[in-house]
Design goal:
The complex is a heterodimer. In chain A, about 30% of the residues lie in helices and about 15% in strands. By secondary structure, chain A is of the alpha+beta class. Chain A folds into 2 domains: about 80 residues, Ubiquitin-like (UB roll); about 70 residues, DNA polymerase, domain 1. The longest helix of chain A has 14 residues. By secondary structure, chain B is an alpha+beta fold. Chain B folds into 3 domains: about 45 residues, Uridine Diphospho-n-acetylenolpyruvylglucosamine Reductase, domain 2, CATH 3.30.43.10; about 110 residues, Uridine Diphospho-n-acetylenolpyruvylglucosamine Reductase, domain 3, CATH 3.30.465; about 110 residues, Enolase-like, domain 1, CATH 3.30.390.50. Chain B has 13 helices and 15 strands. In chain B, helix 5 runs antiparallel to helix 8, helix 10 packs antiparallel against helix 11 and helix 11 runs antiparallel to helix 13. Classes of the chains: A alpha+beta, B alpha+beta. Chains A and B meet through strand 4 and helix 3 of A and helix 2 and helix 6 of B.
Chain lengths: ~160, ~290
Amino acid sequence: MPNTVPITVNVNGRSHSANVEPRTLLVHFLRETLNLTGTKIGCDTSQCGACVVRMNGVTVKACTAFAVQVDGADITTIEGVAQDGNLSAVQEAFWNNHGLQCGYCTAGMIMSVTEIIERNPNPSAEEVRAGLEGNMCRCTGYNNIVKAALAAAAARQGG
Amino acid sequence: MYPANFEYLKASSIADAVRLLSENPGAKLLAGGHSLIPLMRFRLARPEVLIDIGGVDGLRGVTVSGDTINIGALTTHATIAASADVQRANGLLAEAASGIGDPAVRNRGTIGGNLAHADPASDWATVLTALGATISVQGPSGSRSVAAGDFIEDAFAPALAEDELITTVSVPVLAANQRAEYAKMSHPASFYAVVGGAVVVTMDGNRCTAASVAVGGLTPRPVKAASVEQALSGTTLTMDSIADATSRLGDDISAAGVDVIGDVFASADFRARIAPVEVKHALLHAIDLAHH
């Protein structure tokens, strides 16, 4: 039996306790232990952003944190973004603006765009692109993602 | 990818971290993990013991006291970039921090972890060398200070004993007549610096009275470009005088007496050619002849 460490993590408002091997990455804990498979593994080199989740309110790459490091933290994954079955403004804007094609990057994109417009409620297209430097998309060419981000910002402003 | 397994220990204080390091030879410290975890995923590093210092108090945050900015080792790049105190006291620190990796990386990666990784192209190593920063480290027999320019002894070999950890990075506040800039060529996917040049110039009107120039990504430790500094000092900074000064960087690389790094990202020849361009770019920013 390999050594394990007990952790308790609040994920999408629910507390989860588990014994994890220290080497368990956060993304593996979310996908394999909690079955929250909305968070994707893309490059596994900290570059692509498919695994971005929010930890204590800021985006992190879930492939670049050990589960033991998030003991006691609040994590939000894509499964926790819609409330009571209602899409968030960002999700709605991705839907309306066709901000995805294959969808593999979308969970990470939505987490990052949510942070971008929380920090900067009225971003320029350039600021959105800078904020998405760590999220790669191989389908859309990014234009519709940027459009979606700007639409989400406008919607949040009541525009 | 799954890293090799390891024993996980959690340090409760700086002293506890030093004790755990002493008791576990070969152990690695885990801060934000943004240098170490990628290496472990590829099994380029397989430490048997990791000591998590993420919960240690007193290693986070920025304070400005007199002429010095003190940055705790666990302070994230994002915190440094967003700090109004840092922006006021030394804009180059904020600018360099905001250019590291991407937003999610900056939210977790720490200045101490970045330095301890001792990557030859580390943005922090290059910038802190030009700024004349000091790195404080703590070991079993107390603390000591290392000049930033001496901190990387060889590629991925920091000037740290096995039982020492970085506690604070101390950086001078820029004077009103000093301008400091950094320019780099980054890898387009990871945004890791390939080659970067950092400059601090002290100005009397348009005349440069003193210059500090450092280049990272060329050699195992940042090169302090004495010939370029000398050519800039006492000179009115123009396009031409800057181009003349930066053309001397080759002399400083030769003087360093080590081969220029070449790898899959950039050959040695390319790095040697791009380095003066980055230094020139930084200097042109410093005198407002270029824009970000």
